[in-house]
Amino acid sequence: MNEQKQMLTTPTEKNLDSLFDEQETEISEQQGATPTEYSKEGYAAAKKAELHAAYDKADRTAQAISSKGEYFKNYLNTLSRIEKYSPTNTLLIYSYRPNATRLREYDEWSDDGISVKANEKSISIIKRVDYQREDGTMGYNNNVKKVFDISQTNATPQDKQQHSIRALC
């Protein structure tokens, strides 16, 4: 009984994932083909669906954290650890990995000689991409970017040390 009560009040990776896994599976099944099999239009549609799914997941996470004070408190803790991300991306990060501390793309970890552990699931966040239109004006798109937390890597304890600006002052 006490274990069941704790599961309901303490957001963990497992019970937060269960809120969202069904919709992600449904989207993956709808997309069907791998990116190399898409036509230009099909690829654009798949990317649009992926972005839409990320926004939906952020919305569902916001609703979930507003339902319980403990969830909101833990979200604020996540927000304080990864302060360079937007509130929407923090919601996404929180929904995948509430205890995340340091996020980077797969290639960024690899460039530093750190590998991502086998079978680790990436964290989808939204990245703004600026571009110049043919008429010379600037525009932007939002794309889904896949990142991994340092806890999902083989980083050594020395690599895992993180110095915050506040601690250095």
Structure explained in plain terms:
The chain contains eight helices and three strands; from the N terminus they run αααααβαββαα. It has one domain. It is of the alpha+beta class and 169 residues long. It starts with a helix and ends with a helix. It has a three-stranded antiparallel β-sheet with strand order 1-3-2. A hairpin with a 5-residue loop joins strand 2 (123-132) and strand 3 (138-149). 54% of the residues lie in helices and 14% in strands.
Main traits of this protein?
8 helices, 169 residues, globular, alpha+beta, three-stranded antiparallel beta sheet
Can I get a quick summary?
This protein has 169 residues and is of the alpha+beta class.
Helix-strand topology string: HHHHHEHEEHH
Distance between the termini: 46 Å
Low-pLDDT regions: 1-14, 22-33, 163-169
Tell me the number of strands.
3
Helicity range: 40-55%
Average pLDDT, all residues: 78
Helix/strand-derived category reads alpha+beta
Strand portion, in percent? 5-15%
**Strand line-up of the largest beta sheet:** 1-3-2
Counted up, domains total 1
- DSSP helical segment count: 8
Radius of gyration, in Å, reads 18 Å
Largest sheet: 3 strands, antiparallel
Shape: globular
Topology at a glance:
Blueprint: H1 2-9, H2 13-31, H3 40-67, H4 69-81, H5 87-96, E1 103-104, H6 106-111, E2 123-132, E3 138-149, H7 157-160, H8 165-168
Antiparallel strand pairs: 1-3, 2-3
